[in-house]
Amino acid sequence: MNQRIVPAFLLALGFFTLAGCSSPTVITLNDGREFQAVDKPDYDEDTGFYEFEELDGRQAKVNKDQVRTIKEL
């Protein structure tokens, strides 16, 4: 039984470590709409858009000029 506990503990520790890397973010637009992202959005300088993953798993893009604030929760 002891042989199963150590790998299970290491696996659980790995999941908790990965979960700690992301920090949910709220992106507020100039018109008041809000998007909740899984992590901090990436800014693409070539296109001028913020790219992020919403909480439901969908990928989204927002023009930089439409963004009022980006706050971590």
Describe this structure in words.
With about 70 residues, this protein is an alpha+beta fold. About 25% of the residues lie in helices and about 40% in strands. The protein is elongated and about 55 Å long.
Percent of residues in β-strands: 35-45%
Let me know the number of strands.
6
Mean pLDDT: 84
> Segments where pLDDT lies below 50 for 5+ residues?
none
By DSSP (H or I, 4+ residues per run), the number of helices equals 1
Task: List the secondary-structure elements in sequence, H or E.
Answer: HEEEEEE
Taking the sheet with the most strands, its summary is:
3 strands, antiparallel
The percentage helix is 10-25%
Question: Which outline best applies?
Answer: elongated
- Using the CA coordinates, give the radius of gyration: 17 Å
Structural class label: alpha+beta
- N- to C-terminal separation? 40 Å
Strands ordered across the widest β-sheet: 2-1-6
Give the arrangement of secondary structure elements.
Elements: H1 2-19, E1 25-29, E2 34-37, E3 42-44, E4 49-53, E5 59-63, E6 67-72
Antiparallel strand pairs: 1-2, 1-6, 3-4, 4-5
